[in-house]
Amino acid sequence: MSSSSVIDREVLQVIPQKFLKAYTIETRQVELLHKIHGTSILYSTSKLLCLSPSAYATSASIFHRFYQRQNCTLDKYDVWSVALGSILLASKVEEDVRRISDIILVFIQVYRRMRLEYGKQGTSDETEHIVTAKSAILQKKQLSEEEKENLLRYTHPLPRYGILYKEWEEQIMEMENIILRELGFMLSWIPDSHPHTFILYFIKVLEIEGKDVAQRSWNYCNDSYRLDFCVRFSPEIIACAAIHLGCIDCIVSLPLSPMPWWHAFLGSKEDENLSTVCNGLMALKSNDCIKGYSDALTKYVVSRVEGGSFVDPGSYSWNAMD
């Protein structure tokens, strides 16, 4: 792998050949931003639910695999709905089950905070770059800064038999069934396919001392789930890319002769794929890797569902937060 391929800070998106004609650069960027928004929701909610890192990785893997299905598009399913179902299923697969009521309450808390960041002053240029469905509901009046502060300061308890709770409950139950059908009810194998399972073994074989490289590599593996690498590349490739970048960060040299060290784990035909993963992971370290990236991480992004999703501006969930 050449040094230039690692330095090239660009998120690459590999599209199957049969879909190339329908894809444009703009389409790929929009899809990427929405999926990054979805995985940031998964990351925040999994932390608040005290789920294990493996459960977060499983939920993100389910999320990305769902959108890989040909009929599961962002125009049909918003990321909040899919994230709800993904977290619920991941907690079951990992045998770290959380009650539906707890999941809903945590999601609503994250939703409330991201909603208050929506349209915040000083970031409108980036927000406008994220393409959403064209609908009249987007013209609704936004909260003032004072109203946002008051809303965060005073959070009313959510009645479990109220309309808002019931709407989220129906959504999570429906998406659980849809995801299971689309993925063929086969989810139990996912935890064993995480790249994290290979990192410590590879590091031990490479005789890398200290914990710094292992920690950096582990963090890169977590970052990889912001992109759809888990459905495009084998976990061994992602693990090697994470170790490679972790060693660069910690200034640790690995053998490149008589052959590059990663050939011992991947063979000699995966250099290009390894380079692609490294490029994507490096790009995620910069907030300007793609316009709108920082907004997608912390602010509510309006869905592409025509007419709006159940949490878009103008919906009952949106107005109930006022």
Automatic annotation (TrEMBL):
CDD domains: CYCLIN_CCNL_rpt2
Superkingdom of origin: Eukaryota
Keyword Nucleotide-binding: no
Entries under Pfam families matching the protein: Cyclin_N, CycT2-like_C
GO biological process annotation, one example: regulation of transcription by RNA polymerase II
GO molecular function list: cyclin-dependent protein serine/threonine kinase regulator activity
InterPro entries: Cyclin-like_dom, Cyclin-like_sf, Cyclin/Ssn8, Cyclin_N
Domain Cyclin-like residues, every copy: 40-181, 197-282
Coiled-coil portions: none
Alphabetical UniProt keywords: Cyclin
PANTHER family the record matches: CYCLIN
Similarity comment text for this entry: Belongs to the cyclin family.
Protein name from the UniProt record: Cyclin-like domain-containing protein
Species: Chaetoceros tenuissimus
